[in-house]
Design a protein that fits this description.
This protein is α/β, with parallel strands linked by helices. It has helices spanning 10-21, 32-41, 85-91, 107-114, 161-171, 181-191, 193-202, 206-209, 213-233, 241-251, 259-266, 272-285, 291-299; strands at residues 2-6, 25-29, 43-46, 52-55, 58-60, 71-74, 97-101, 120-134, 137-150, 174-178. Strands 1, 2, 3, 4, 5, 6, 7, 8, 9 and 10 form a 10-stranded mixed beta sheet that branches. A hairpin with a 5-residue loop joins strand 3 (43-46) and strand 4 (52-55). The longest helix is centred in the last third of the chain and has 21 residues, at 213-233. It is globular, with a radius of gyration of 19 Å.
């Protein structure tokens, strides 16, 4: 199958590099300095076990891509999703599957609303500890790359998901197929959104969050609100992911910061909307109080909250 990856950040670059290494037909959309460097030097992946891989991935600007891919993997930040619609609308054929790997819940609804025709949409989440050291240079912090993909909440499974899963497995990823990606998205958010919110609220890193019983209780409260959304939506999250969250934060490096927290600290554009507000709004739509998420939204001065 022919793959197009939109987004040359850490996730998109790493995925493109591994797919190229496995012999898959993959093209990466990049722009500006990233595009120039990737075309000249390829993508460098510094793996967690000390290897340095250099892959000469095909990279083009969005306006220069003129093929019809079988699969488009969208790896942009949630706040940049709207910028991808022009390209998606131009290159997607009737059988193209759009797979979003974005930190957002129900992101398929946004993609559907942004397209001018019916398209096949699969949602996904990626568990991968990678960072972009410089344009085209990806550092893998842990030997972890898992993708969960599948059907949108209350939608049928898109055609082609099993073939995509097989290709990603060939690449060396751990792959799971989910019958409801809201459940799977909530499970990831219990790991990601909660710690981001706690770090932002307490203005510190993981070591600061675990440094007091108050902040750890706040972390649990955030996780429990996500669990409550799953229950209200009819897709309860199995197991005890809140306990797993507490264990993970207890054992992670003290200076660990989520990518949202890094952006927050550096004054960059940040995924407050998808990781905080959309969670709050979804819970409120199910009649849940969402007091923990409301606290972090008020702390950052997020607009549009009810008075109180």
């Amino acid at each position: 199958m022919k793959y197009l990856i939109i987004g040359a950040g850490a996730l998109g670059s790493c995925l493109a590099g591994f797919m190229h290494r496995a012999g898959k037909d993959v093209t990466l959309i990049a722009r500006g300095e990233k595009l120039e460097i990737i075309r000249r030097d390829g993508i460098t992946i510094e793996t967690a076990d000390g290897q340095t891989l250099i892959e000469q991935v095909k990279a083009v600007a969005a306006e220069d891509y003129d093929e019809t891919p079988d699969v488009v993997v969208v790896c942009v930040k949630s706040y940049s999703l709207d910028s991808a619609f022009a390209l998606l609308g131009r290159v997607c054929g009737p059988n193209t599957v759009i797979l979003s790997l974005i930190n957002a819940l129900n992101v398929g609804d946004r993609i559907e609303a942004g397209m001018d025709r019916d398209v096949q949409i699969a949602e996904g989440v990626a568990y991968v500890a990678v960072g972009l050291s410089s344009p085209g240079v990806v550092k893998q912090k842990l030997n972890l790359f898992t993708v969960v993909l599948g059907a949108r909440h209350k939608h049928p499974m898109p055609a082609g998901v099993e073939r995509i899963a097989a290709d990603l497995t060939d690449v060396g990823l751990t792959v799971e197929i989910s019958d409801d990606m809201l459940r799977s998205g909530l499970r990831k958010f219990i790991r990601v959104s909660t710690l981001s919110a706690a770090e932002v609220y307490y203005d510190g890193y993981a070591g600061d969050v675990r440094g007091s019983s108050e902040s750890m209780q706040y972390l649990r409260d955030l996780g429990n609100e996500l669990m409550q959304i799953g229950d209200a939506a009819g897709v309860p999250v199995p197991g005890d992911p809140v306990a797993e969250l507490v264990e993970a934060v207890t054992n992670v490096d003290a200076d660990y910061a989520t990518s949202l927290m890094v952006d927050h600290k550096n004054g960059n554009e940040t995924e407050y909307e998808s990781q905080f507000y959309d969670v709050y709004a979804l819970g409120r739509a199910y009649g849940l109080p969402m007091e923990a998420y409301e606290r972090v939204l008020r702390a950052i001065g997020y607009p549009g909250l009810p008075e109180g």
